[in-house]
Amino acid sequence: MDDKIRILLSEEEVAARVKEIAEEISRDYDGKPLHLICILKGGVFFTCELAKRINLPLTLDFMSVSSYGAGTVSSGIVKITKDLDEPIEGKDVLIVEDIIDSGNTLAYLIEVLKQRNPNSIELCTLLDKPERRVKDQVKVKYTCFTVPDQFIVGYGLDYDQIYRNLPYIGVIEQQ
Ligand code: IMP
Ligand code: MG
């Protein structure tokens, strides 16, 4: 726990950007009901802040996935460890993620969810690391920040389950 963390995006910067994205979402859906799907656990901090600032009739559901793979890049073999509570058929769905890295997790998830016949399905992420993308079919509609290929913690993102509760976004400095 004595890692040194360098702040990449302050609490204020994140709050301002989340508000902007929420306003964009509210405009785009133009008063229509929106169903947010939060990807646990990393997406939970972002989802709460975002949801509070979206001005639409909003419903929420949660899903948890784990991806298996050696090393630091996920394999694309994804297991749903907690499924949604409610059907998404006919709904306008927005998936909320903490970070899109290789894109493997979301490429799989979007395929699974499309088979449940939502009216629409889009993606909103706090962070995007485009340099690491291997699945280019993952199209992200809303991105708060694009980040370099560094290991990020805070605002939901963990290192070995720690640091999720940091109010800012940071990187662990090499000691
Ligand atoms: P993907 O399938 O490679 O896109 O994996 C995405 C998942 O890996 C995210 O939802 C995070 O849980 C995790 N992840 C990817 N990059 C980072 C990072 O820099 N810090 C913390 N978690 C990360
Ligand atoms: Mg995650």
TrEMBL record:
Localization (cell): Cytoplasm
Catalytic activity: GMP + diphosphate = guanine + 5-phospho-alpha-D-ribose 1-diphosphate; IMP + diphosphate = hypoxanthine + 5-phospho-alpha-D-ribose 1-diphosphate
Entry-linked InterPro entries: HGPRT, Hxn_phspho_trans, PRTase-like, PRTase_dom
Name this protein carries in UniProt: Hypoxanthine phosphoribosyltransferase
EC code(s) of this entry: 2.4.2.8
Coiled coil: none
Highest taxon of source: Bacteria
GO MF annotations, alphabetized: guanine phosphoribosyltransferase activity; hypoxanthine phosphoribosyltransferase activity; magnesium ion binding; nucleotide binding
Organism: Lacrimispora celerecrescens
Short name of any one Pfam family annotated for the protein: Pribosyltran
Keyword ATP-binding: no
Cofactor(s) in the UniProt record: Mg(2+)
Family according to the record: Belongs to the purine/pyrimidine phosphoribosyltransferase family.
Function: Purine salvage pathway enzyme that catalyzes the transfer of the ribosyl-5-phosphate group from 5-phospho-alpha-D-ribose 1-diphosphate (PRPP) to the N9 position of the 6-oxopurines hypoxanthine and guanine to form the corresponding ribonucleotides IMP (inosine 5'-monophosphate) and GMP (guanosine 5'-monophosphate), with the release of PPi.
Assigned GO CC terms: cytosol
UniProt KW keywords: Cytoplasm, Glycosyltransferase, Magnesium, Metal-binding, Nucleotide-binding, Purine salvage, Transferase
Involved pathway(s): Purine metabolism; GMP biosynthesis via salvage pathway; GMP from guanine: step 1/1; Purine metabolism; IMP biosynthesis via salvage pathway; IMP from hypoxanthine: step 1/1
Main location: cytoplasm
NCBIfam families on file: HGPRTase (TIGR01203)
